[in-house]
Amino acid sequence: DRELSVGISTVQAATLTNESALEHLQKVIDSENGRHFVGGGGNYVFQDRQAPFRSPYDTVQCIFGNLVGEVPYQEIDFSYDDTYLYNEVPLTRVGGTEQVASQAADYPVYYKRTLTKDGLLIDTDAEANDAANWLLTLYASPQFRMNRISVKPDGNVWDQVLAREIGDRVTVRVRPISGGTLIERDATIDGITHEFTAQTWLTTYQLYPY
Fold this sequence. Notes:
By secondary structure, this protein is α/β, with parallel strands linked by helices. The protein has 4 helices and 12 strands. It has helices spanning 21-32, 107-110, 125-139, 158-163, and strands at 2-4, 35-38, 44-47, 60-64, 75-79, 88-93, 99-102, 117-120, 145-151, 169-174, 183-196, 201-209. It has a 6-stranded mixed sheet, with no helix packed on it. A 3-stranded mixed sheet has the order 1-3-2, covered by helices on one side. Strands 7-6-8 form a 3-stranded mixed sheet. A hairpin with a 5-residue loop joins strand 2 and strand 3. It starts with a strand and ends with a strand.
């Protein structure tokens, strides 16, 4: 009933006092910078932070687009804003000293934007420092994001649509109506929603930059 990665970080032992198992799992995920979810088969799944770069998640499983061989989509949501922009990351582990990674040169451009994480269960301040710098690398600069994509499956795309799982790597291709340059991004599926009636079916994938 569970599919567990070994994990990269060693986490501290803990006694769950006034804390639910789910709350503790969420702390472990935050400490690992991994992902957990209930998969399509009903199993609890834990993926460590390096899972996206190992088989099968390092291989594109599906291409969304409007040409033959691609899965057609109905709607797509883009963003290029400061929602995921942080140029200072203070991070503290349980029993440790605060570690701060920053890109101060960008403060005059984007102002200081802080992502704070504390109470992490990792073992050493050195790893906490590495984690702070890794998060800074992810979020210090704004980037063009494809946040979600919606598909109305029909014909021969049902197998593709229903086979997708959280963690799958996909490619999204957008061809401007007026011509112009193809926009292509790889993303990881971060959430799946199915909405259906007797006549319609709409599947929406939440995406995270690969």
